[in-house]
Each structure stands twice: as C-alpha cells, then as structure tokens.
C-alpha cells in the first residue's frame, strides 16, 4: 500500500462511499425515532457495526484476488455483512438537539439537505405520477424519516438475519420503520443488469487517494482505461475537490458524504413498446436503414448495448461474448459532436458527457477537468422487484413492481446529483450541438431512458451522405416512488451524535 492511497486505510469514512459494498442482497430501512435519548442509545449500539472504508476495501481486494486465482468464480467462503447509516436533517437535529444548518443556506448543498428531497422535487422533474404526494416514503406529508440504515449481504439468509437484528434494535429504541426497501441483483443471465436489460454499474469515477493510478496514464485508474481519477473532495466532505479549494462546511460533515436514495419504478414492457413504435417512425421517415432493429435503437437511447459494449466502439452490433467490450470505459464523444454515433440524448451523454463537451451552443469543446469532473457521482444502486417475465400473471408479470433503488454519494447535492438530473437529464438543450440551427429544432431533448416525457431529436446521415434528423416523442417510463436526502457521517461524528453532540 503506497502512502498515496491512504484513503483505503480510512477508519473514519463509512464503507460504500469509496469502497462499494458490492453485495447481491441489500435492504434499506427508513427509521423515525420518537425520542432523542433512545435514538442515541440505538446509535451507540449501531456505530461499532458500521463498516469502514478500510474494512470494505480490504475485503473487496481479497475477494478480487480470490476470484482471479479461481479463474473467475466468486469465492464462496469469503462473505461479509455490511452496515451503513445516514441521517436526514431532522435526524441530525433530533440526535443532537441542535440545528445542523442554522441560518439561511438557500442555494447550497446544506440548503438542499435541510429542505429535503420532497421540497426539491419540482426542480428535478418529479411531477405528475412522480410527484412527492404519490411517494411511498419521503413525501414530507407522511411519516418523517430520521435515519436510513443500509444492510448488505452475500446471501438472502445472511441479509434476513441482519435485518431481523436491526428491526429488534429499532423496536427497542421505540423507532418506527417507516419503510423497508429490499434490493437484489437480478438472477441468471440478467446478473449485473438493470430491469430494462442493460448492464449497469460500469462507469464509476476513480477517486484520488483511493484508486491506484495507471503508470502510463496517471489520469486513469490502473487496469481501467478511460476511468478518470477525480479528487476525493468531490465525494467526501472536507477533502480537496476539483480546483483544490475546500468549501467551508460544518465540523459534523467532515469525512462524510451526502447520500441520495430514489426508488425509481421501471415500466419494462412500456419502455420497450415505445422503442418499437419510435423505430417505426424513423423507418417511415427513412431516417434509419429499413433493417434497423429495436435493439439497435434501444442501444442508442442508452449509449451501450445490453452487454455493456459501448456503441461508440461497436456501432453496428453488440459483442456479448467479449468481456473486455462489456466493461469498456475508454470512450470519447469527441469527433461525434452531432451524435450521429452515440446520440446526444443517450443516457450516457446526458449523465457523463465526457471530453469535448460544448457548453455554450456554438462554442469550443472543453476538456473534462474543466466541466465534467466536478459533476460526477458515485452510484451504488441495485434493482428491486422480480425480473420481467411476459408469461407470468403474478410475480414477474407486467404489473409486478420493479425498478432501481438508485443510491448515489457526493459532497454537494446541488452541484452533482441535482445538476445532472435537472440541468442535463431533463434539459432539452443538453449536450448543446456545436452549431445550433437557428430554429432550435434540433435540440437533443430529454434523456429518453429516465427523463421526463418530451421530444428528442434523432440525427443521422442519409445514404447519400446528407445530415438528416427526425423528431421523436418519448413518454416517461421511469417514475419516482420515493426519495430521501441524507448524510452519511464519519465514524467520529457518529460517536459524537451518540453522545448527543454535533461538532459545529
Ligand atoms: C431506472 C433508472 C436508471 C437506469 C435503468 C439507469 C441505467 C443505466 C445504465 C444501463 C448505464 C450504463 C452502464 C454504466 O456505466 O453503469 C447507466 C450509466 C449512468 N447513469 Fe444511469 N440509470 C438510471 C438512473 C440514473 C439516474 C437517476 C442518474 C443520475 C441522475 C444516473 C446516472 C448515471 C451515470 C452518471 C452513469 C454513468 C455514465 C458514464 O459515465 O458513462 N442514472 N445508467
């Protein structure tokens, strides 16, 4: 272990933020306490059980090494159950008896944290079917949420036992379990994929001081070409972020991270039916080849084929049997400024436009360190619900609930998660075209996988080499069913909170 990777040794930063829990079975418990003293007693019981970055990083390293030596199989004997905890604004207030965000913090991450996810919903496109009044947790009008406990395990049995312990501890503390959200990796050939059928969790930012740089390309993580190393302060409060200036934050926040949890329901048959309909529109307009398939268009909405293979590298067909292609993160959108290969509206370009982003329409492409590195998030989501099975009338059928428990960590809610969701995913004009046509007809539109309903512009090149485009109408098939903004404090802050104190 080199001195440079000292964050791997952190016993302060909770696990899952930098060192992902990476478990197949996860439960989130949303708790509300009735009384501060009992809440503190509960926290003193929980704190020694909270996984640290050091523990999780060491486990993940041993697991990867065992996997390598066994030729790729998961080592059955290496198991762990991990716990994490985060608190909402009202949770910190209850535990400490003090105001964690005194004064006016409007417009800052502390302000967003204080307001909570439900009050921030409007700006994030959570309206209509996704409106907070319809949420099953976190809606601000039902039960308040004070704490989110994450339990992650390798087997359903280990998870169930750990969740039972948590439920008993909550009952002793007279806490109400407002909601229990279970999540699990999809089975069989869908392992590692989200419910629409695409491989998920491929592109995560590398973190300076945690991930080993590649000796040839020190801006990338070793053995992960294209995975940029981002300053740790983008994810952990109090460490240097992009630009090096550490923002002034309260003492309780140091070495912690803001957590976003969103239950995103996915209507799988609805989304795929819509892809087929839009393909027909493109065929009739002769904007695509007559033999273009539904899979072909779906891959363009995501930016990767189902296997994970990026369409920027393999535009014509998936490469399902090439493990390197399915995790390939060495992508650039430079040279494809009009989105003729990877459309500008694709989920990939909407959520991580990478290098060559033209920020102002008609302006110059800018490098990632200037405009993208400070927008990254660490995603730790997991699917919930049964995989889609069109033949089933019950579990697995079209009506059974399913989706993604979206979880992400960042040091600034406004600048990172909210910016991606509001200013990129749901912006009609992101990423801007390098040369905008005067009539604005060709704005890319919303993200057609997760964004609000609306128009997107499909651009291509005709057989005779002309630039052609076609407007498509997309409905929304991903809906928000619950959301929480919380904060995962350092281990020292947890100990102080257990004693009823809040470092200012
Ligand atoms: C049901 C909802 C969602 C689904 C099904 C979904 C699916 C996917 C898939 C298949 C990928 C490509 C594989 C990968 O690199 O991991 C991806 C990447 C990504 N998604 Fe989502 N996603 C969802 C929601 C969100 C939300 C709400 C955000 C943030 C606001 C988000 C941000 C990202 C980011 C940052 C990437 C990495 C892009 C890159 O670096 O290339 N996703 N997602």
TrEMBL record:
Domain (DyP dimeric alpha+beta barrel): residue spans on this chain: 12-168
Extract the ranges annotated as region (Disordered).
429-455
Keywords recorded for this protein, A-Z: Heme, Iron, Metal-binding, Oxidoreductase, Peroxidase
The record's listing under Pfam families reads: DyP_N
**Where do the coiled-coil regions begin and end?**
none
Spell out the molecular function terms from Gene Ontology: heme binding; metal ion binding; peroxidase activity
Protein family according to the UniProt entry:
Belongs to the DyP-type peroxidase family.
| Protein name as annotated | Dyp-type peroxidase
This chain's source organism reads: Kitasatospora camelliae
């Amino acid at each position: 272990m080199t001195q440079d990777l000292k964050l791997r040794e952190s016993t302060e930063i909770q696990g899952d933020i930098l060192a992902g829990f990476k478990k197949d079975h996860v439960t989130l418990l949303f708790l509300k306490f009735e009384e501060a003293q009992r809440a503190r007693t509960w926290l003193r019981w929980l704190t020694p059980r909270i996984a640290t970055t050091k523990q999780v990083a060491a486990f993940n390293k041993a697991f990867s090494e065992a996997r390598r030596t066994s030729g790729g199989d998961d080592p059955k004997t290496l198991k762990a159950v991990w716990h994490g905890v985060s608190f909402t604004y009202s949770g910190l207030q209850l535990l400490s008896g003090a105001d964690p965000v005194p004064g006016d913090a409007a417009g800052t991450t502390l302000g967003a944290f204080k307001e909570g996810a439900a009050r921030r919903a409007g700006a994030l496109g959570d309206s209509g079917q996704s409106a907070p009044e319809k949420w099953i947790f976190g809606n601000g009008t039902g039960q308040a949420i004070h704490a989110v406990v994450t339990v992650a395990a390798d087997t359903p049995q280990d998870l169930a036992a750990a969740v039972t312990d948590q439920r008993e501890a909550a009952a002793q503390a007279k806490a109400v379990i407002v909601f229990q959200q279970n999540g699990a990796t999809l089975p069989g050939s869908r392992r590692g994929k989200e419910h629409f059928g695409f491989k998920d969790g491929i592109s995560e930012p590398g973190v300076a001081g945690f991930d080993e740089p590649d000796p040839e390309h020190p801006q990338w993580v070793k053995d992960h070409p294209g995975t940029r190393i981002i300053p740790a302060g983008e994810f952990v409060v109090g460490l240097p972020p992009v630009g090096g200036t550490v923002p002034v934050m309260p003492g309780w926040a140091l070495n912690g991270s803001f957590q976003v949890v969103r239950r995103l329901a996915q209507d799988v048959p609805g989304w795929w039916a819509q892809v087929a309909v839009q393909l027909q529109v493109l065929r009739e307009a002769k904007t695509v080849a007559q033999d273009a398939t539904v899979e072909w268009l779906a891959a363009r909405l995501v930016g990767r084929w189902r296997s994970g293979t990026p369409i920027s590298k393999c535009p014509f067909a998936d490469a399902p049997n090439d493990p390197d292609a399915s995790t390939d993160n060495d992508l650039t959108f430079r040279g494809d400024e009009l989105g003729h290969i990877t459309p500008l509206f694709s989920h990939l370009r909407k959520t991580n436009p990478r290098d060559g982003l033209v920020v102002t329409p008609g302006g110059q492409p800018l490098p990632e360190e200037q405009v993208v590195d400070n927008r990254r998030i660490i995603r730790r989501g997991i699917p919930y619900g049964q995989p889609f099975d069109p033949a089933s009338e019950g579990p697995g059928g079209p009506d059974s609930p399913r989706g993604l428990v979206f979880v992400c960590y960042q040091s600034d809610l406004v600048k990172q998660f909210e910016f991606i969701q509001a200013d990129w995913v749901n912006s009609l004009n992101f990423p801007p075209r390098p040369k905008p046509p005067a009539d604005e007809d060709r704005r890319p539109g919303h993200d057609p996988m997760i964004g609000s309903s609306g128009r997107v512009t499909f651009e291509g090149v005709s057989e005779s080499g002309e630039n052609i485009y076609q407007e498509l109408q997309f409905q929304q098939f991903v809906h928000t069913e619950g959301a929480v903004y919380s904060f995962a404090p350092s281990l020292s802050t947890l100990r102080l909170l257990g004693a009823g104190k809040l470092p200012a």
